[in-house]
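task queued by scheduler; priority normal; single chain, no ligands, no partner chains; default sampling; output format set to structure tokens
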Amino acid sequence: MTDVTEEWVAGLPKVELHVHVEGAILPETLLRLARRNGVALPANSLEELRAWYAFTDFPHFAEIYQTFSKAIVTVDDIHDMAWDFLKEQARQNILHTEATFTAFTHYTNHGIPFADQMAAIRAAADKAREAYGVSLGLIIDIAREYVTMDDARTMARWVADAHGDGLVFALGLAGYEPDHPPELFTDVFAMSREAGVPAIVHAGETGPAAFVRTAIEQLGAQRIGHGVTAISDPSTLAVIRERGVTLEVCPSSNVCLKVTPSMEQHPFRLLDQQGVAVTINSDDPPMFSTDLNGEYLKVARTFGYSRADLKAFAIRAAGASLLPSARKTELADRIAAYA
């Protein structure tokens, strides 16, 4: 049993470290953008679109992602997508988000320059900070199965040039892991690391525990997106602990993608018991019929975590963020003060 209620979780100040801006597009946002740009959708009404959003398998996930990308045509679309995303984060009392954004897709699909994309998101982030008091940092990711090494180097240069501007926080690596191990990108991340850019790497989701270790040891990842397959290898768990690496765990996503058979069999609590720094995140929430509040509630009810435990997870997320120390302390204090 747990003392955690839906109302209590809704009021808990939170920090989210693993959520994709494009993957968090609500069906109503997608419908509006598609109609504005004359893009055909596989559904004609909001109700049909919500039904289509319901996740079935990884190819369906890819289909949804490609539909998002086609509907995002202009810098105004990017601004509106980011604004709707931040309003939703604020609704959940998420004080700070470090969100993954796939800028190269919008550059290749519709020729939107990286600087213009960042200006549009910055305008939305500034407005959200003023209206709701929430902040945003971006992890610009390399979608490993869709890019060449030259593309990856281009993105690394973009991020190196923008890093430190208050919006672009890190270089990421995302996507489907089989046939695309992290060591393929060692040189790209070495180039980024020389420029002082942190590395945030998806590993140990659709790939083995060895990919987690490689992401840490060869790419210099200071946080790992997912990382749950590390539970199978004690030596990888030891590296995670020794290096102080935080795992951005997304429970519902892992169940939907069949990384784990069920929430009850998810390794979240085992990882926690092994001394691994786990955090709670939503990944692509509309597709997995969840949000961050829902993930906190599921983790508490499935594994028996208390209110104090959930506050500790939220404080850990603040500490693992890429924010300045003073801002981390401010966030941790606000979470700790929640009654």
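post-processing summary
- The chain has one domain: 6-24+92-322.
- The mean pLDDT is 95.
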